[in-house]
């Protein structure tokens, strides 16, 4: 009975033990599945996180990397952080994103996997329930209470799972990352402001100049469109499309390049501002780089001639071509003469002044006091003597002559024949065209920009203002405006406008490049000394001086005085001048009973004019009145209109500008009641020809040319020079060449020349010019068609 009871109790105990084992096994297996799923999710999570961070780092570096050359920037220590971070992220990604991990885990722990339990490890846990001897026979009874406490089991798959290297690495890495609490703590530094500031400060180190690439990426569509629009700018301007619209189109197409320039500015420690010039330069560099990488070399087109002056004697040659000459006292005769003297004074370049030669009959019409010359040498001596008396030094430059004819209708001298041929090819280096539109209206010969390396035009006269005063003036002004645009584009590299009163021309900038005769500055200094000694410097009132033609301010003057005759009661004005409209002007003033005293014209530096205190100049047709500058230099008050032509003079305290006729009266009374202020040394210098020459050299880009810096814009990329003019064609230059060719064909036809107002027989010089200048006899040709 006892044996039977013990046997029954043992069986019950065994059954109960195996029941607990079965139940415990299910719990262990479920727990293991949950753990494995958690491990799988963590592995996938870190895999995705590593890939995301890796992409962010790559994007950060790639976005900073330039697609074109930039200046070399010094490396800093912060770049080591970025260099070390990317390999670690890549290693992390490689370890935890290995496809073998997920595949092998799923294969080994799927439903069909065979599992073995090493029960011998829990044998000691069962001694409380079963006899030690019986436990040796059963070899596998589990202490369920201890299993529940530890919830831990050792798994073995055919004796090799515990030795699997990827799982051990995974556990180690997971432990390390669990200590960090979350991925935000690990990578939160990317969003931390301190880190961002460090990245910003490291831009100089990140944005370094790349190594020279063997392959240059081709131009994309926006770059091609931007380059086409920019090159077509001058052509679109002819069609009425404003330049600022073209600039905006180019800027929008180059938005990517603009962002890169902003990065470059930040890296260089400069303000992140990018103007149109920078965008255009980088676009030119980009196109030149692509063309050069293909081995292409642009050698000129149908219109272009690159055979130009070669500087072999070490000195540059400057040829100044003008439309008038002394003794005609006009701005285009006097100012180019002073410019030649002060350019030659530096002795850095040889200077030639090319002036028109008139036959005796035309000299009698143009030159004052019946002064004429029998030979060019005689006139050359006269010009040199007149100049040296005023500048106080010997002007070492050459004076040459070209044939010209005087037009009574236009009151100007028109060149006869090809003016450019009177500059020898060996001296054809730099050309300065005084009044370039005037010189080229009927020019039929060599293109200036083909013969000379650099051609600068200086606009003296507001022709549109004069033409509008004539019959059918609006139509004529419209035609002349476009003809001026055409000849400027065809024959000049750079154009300087003395003031904004002139026509807005292609390739032009506004700058006053004229000075005053040094004699006027000396007069001003003497007046200031007399005033310091308590002497009376000015004993007379107001005066006006200018060529007596209606367009030179006489119409405005008579209108103002007639309107305010009562307001200016007792005001007397002396008027000095000669001209074609002298009789009509004087008759009108007499009829209106104006207090005007008309006197013969004279030099502004004449002693009889020193005692006047106020110079009145109401003209609005001038571009930059030389007489106004001379009056200011002599220390006088100047009353002039609030007009773009007087913009340069506004900074002088003695310049009183008016906007209305009532304001004119107030300014005249103010000037008569007060004493002018003495000029400061800086103000005297700004009026001098030394300052004017410095401004001219700067704004005409002559300093770059004289220093043998090729305009064409040699770009430096990756320590490699890229010459724009040679590497790539210019659509604008091709259009300019086409316009020059069309103009050459047009001016070659005598019938068309006569239709547009040319003087008959000026397509070439005549026999008298040939005799006076010792030229070859002119060619005999069809007098009408001139083919």
UniProtKB/TrEMBL annotation:
Annotated signal peptide: none
GO molecular function, a single term: digalactosyldiacylglycerol synthase activity
Biological processes, Gene Ontology terms: galactolipid biosynthetic process
Location of this chain's protein in the cell: Plastid, Chloroplast outer membrane
Catalysed reactions, semicolon-separated: a 1,2-diacyl-3-O-(beta-D-galactosyl)-sn-glycerol + UDP-alpha-D-galactose = a 1,2-diacyl-3-O-[alpha-D-galactosyl-(1->6)-beta-D-galactosyl]-sn-glycerol + UDP + H(+)
Main subcellular localisation: plastid
Keywords: Chloroplast, Glycosyltransferase, Membrane, Plastid, Plastid outer membrane, Transferase, Transit peptide
Domain of life: Eukaryota
Keyword Glycosyltransferase belongs to the record: yes
Pfam assignment, any one: Glycos_transf_1
All copies of domain Glycosyl transferase family, residue ranges: 542-677
Top enzyme category: transferase
Family: Belongs to the glycosyltransferase group 1 family. Glycosyltransferase 4 subfamily.
Protein name (Swiss-Prot/TrEMBL): Digalactosyldiacylglycerol synthase 1, chloroplastic
